[in-house]
């Protein structure tokens, strides 16, 4: 959520953000300012009446002391009238504040000045490429054929039990998942992240705090009876961990990593884009979350990006980094990178990590603040997060890129101690 003072001072900038992000309408800014004007006028009137009521109360005491009962009775009647007016104004102020906050929640974050302006994924900028796509003396298989060949996953029974997009992993496939999870977590802990085990469901306040509500409610599974949502990412519970808290400046930065299953209702596209592991409704992911001082958040963004990239480098997966344009970066982000790996069997790039700086946008919603030098007025801190990494497309790329002509699959060196073997297949 943006600071109302920022919107008052920069309405054109906020309108440009709405246009560049292609979300909502510029009329929302005018609605916010109009609602803010109503709230301020009521608040001013409330303060004036409160001052008058305080003066009248003092007047009553003075008149009673002087024995002037008739004027005291008149002052008592006026005081009662002012109290009634105050009660009405307080109710109107609460209603105006609620209306203003509802409108503020619909305003997207303002992109950082370094973000490329664009409308579609074609406008994203390839900022960096690492590694060379592998070449084969044979026609490499897509990962869904390799999953079937080695009996690593069962999509049909997953569909029977839960629905499309909920596969079972079996045998070496399940062990491969576990190896990747442990590798990513160990790498995170070694890099200074504190490991967390997070709840898989959150309440409405938590979903609103990170920006899933009101923007992404259609993408989440909801347990209506209990008022809970299945998490689309560990970002939601882990970032809300410090909701409504004031953190000492000396404790910043705080860095967490968490493994969770993730649940998303998104239908995605059709054909090859959703086949196999390309797009699932339940998948495993390690999430990295930072709470930082505002002065260091863009250094933290590069640190977060660098860590996610180091995982791809250790797995020896060719990848590229995209600087996401305004129209493809999302409602909540101020700046976002995507990391994509090369899929040899599908001959295309697969997104495996998004790395974002939200600046104060999430923290303001959640009232997460830090106290400068242990004293003074608390300030809103900055939050960041990124995937380190999401498993399905990493698994797809590893199976495809490491396959051999006989159909067996080599295990990357860094995973062999976790997996317990150097190959899948004979």
Structure in words:
There is one protein chain. By secondary structure, this protein is an alpha+beta fold. It has 13 helices and 18 strands. The strands form five sheets. It has an eight-stranded mixed β-sheet. A three-stranded antiparallel β-sheet has the order 5-7-6. A three-stranded mixed β-sheet has the order 8-14-15, with no helix packed on it. Helix 3 runs antiparallel to helix 4 (about 70-105) and helix 5 packs across helix 12 (about 390-400). The model has no long low-confidence stretch (mean pLDDT about 95).
Strand arrangement across the biggest beta sheet: 1-11-12-13-16-10-9-4
Structural class, from secondary structure content?
alpha+beta
What's the story with the biggest beta sheet? Answer: 8 strands, mixed
Supply Rg: 27 Å
Distance between the termini: 55 Å
The portion of residues forming beta strands comes to 15-25%
List keywords for this structure.
alpha+beta; 426 residues
Please specify the SSE layout and strand pairing.
Elements lengths: L3 H6 L1 H11 L5 H40 L2 H36 L20 E6 L12 H7 L3 E2 H7 L6 E2 L2 H19 L3 E3 L4 E3 H6 L12 E2 L4 E3 L4 H6 L5 E3 L5 E10 L18 E11 L4 H18 L4 E5 L11 E9 L4 E12 L1 H6 L2 E3 L7 E2 L1 E9 H11 L7 E2 L5 H4 L3 E2 L2
Parallel strand pairs: 4-9, 8-14
Antiparallel strand pairs: 1-11, 2-3, 5-7, 6-7, 9-10, 10-16, 11-12, 12-13, 13-16, 14-15, 17-18
């Amino acid at each position: 959520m943006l600071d109302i003072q920022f919107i008052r001072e920069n309405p054109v900038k906020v309108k440009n953000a709405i246009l560049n992000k292609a979300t909502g309408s510029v009329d929302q800014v005018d609605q916010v300012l109009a609602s803010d004007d109503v709230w301020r006028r009521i608040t001013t009137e409330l303060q004036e009446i409160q001052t008058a009521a305080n003066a009248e109360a003092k007047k009553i005491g003075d008149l009673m002391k002087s024995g002037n009962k008739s004027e005291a009775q008149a002052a008592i009647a006026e005081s009662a009238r002012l109290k009634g007016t105050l009660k009405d104004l307080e109710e109107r102020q609460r209603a105006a504040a609620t209306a203003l906050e509802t409108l503020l929640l619909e305003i997207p974050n303002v992109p950082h000045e370094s973000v490329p302006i664009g409308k579609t994924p074609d406008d994203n900028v390839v900022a960096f490429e690492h590694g060379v796509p592998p070449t084969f003396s044979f026609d490499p298989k897509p990962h869904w054929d390799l999953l079937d060949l080695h009996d690593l996953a069962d999509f049909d029974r997953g569909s029977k039990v839960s629905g499309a997009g909920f596969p079972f992993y079996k045998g070496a496939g399940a062990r491969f998942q576990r190896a990747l999870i442990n590798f990513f977590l160990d790498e995170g802990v070694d890099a200074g992240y504190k490991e967390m085990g997070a709840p898989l469901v959150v309440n409405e306040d938590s979903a609103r705090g990170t920006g899933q509500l009101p923007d992404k409610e259609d993408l989440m599974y909801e347990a209506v009876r209990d008022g809970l949502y299945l998490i689309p990412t560990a970002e939601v519970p882990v970032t809300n961990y410090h909701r409504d808290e004031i953190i000492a400046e000396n404790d910043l930065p705080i860095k967490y990593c968490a493994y969770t299953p993730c649940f998303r209702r998104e239908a995605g596209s059709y054909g090859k884009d959703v086949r196999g592991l390309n797009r699932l409704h339940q998948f495993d992911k390690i999430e990295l979350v930072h709470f930082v001082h505002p002065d260091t958040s863009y250094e933290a963004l590069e640190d977060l990006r660098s860590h996610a990239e180091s995982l791809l480098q250790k797995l020896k997966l060719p990848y590229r980094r995209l600087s996401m344009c305004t129209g493809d970066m999302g409602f909540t982000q101020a700046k976002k990178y995507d990391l994509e790996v090369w899929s040899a069997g599908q001959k295309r790039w697969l997104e495996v990590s998004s790395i974002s700086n939200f600046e104060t946008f999430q923290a303001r919603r959640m009232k997460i603040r830090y106290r400068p030098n242990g004293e003074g007025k608390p300030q809103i801190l900055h939050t960041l997060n990124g995937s380190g990494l999401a498993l399905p497309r990493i698994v797809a790329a590893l199976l495809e890129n490491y396959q051999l002509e006989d159909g067996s699959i080599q295990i990357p060196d860094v995973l062999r101690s976790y997996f317990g073997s150097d190959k899948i297949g004979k």
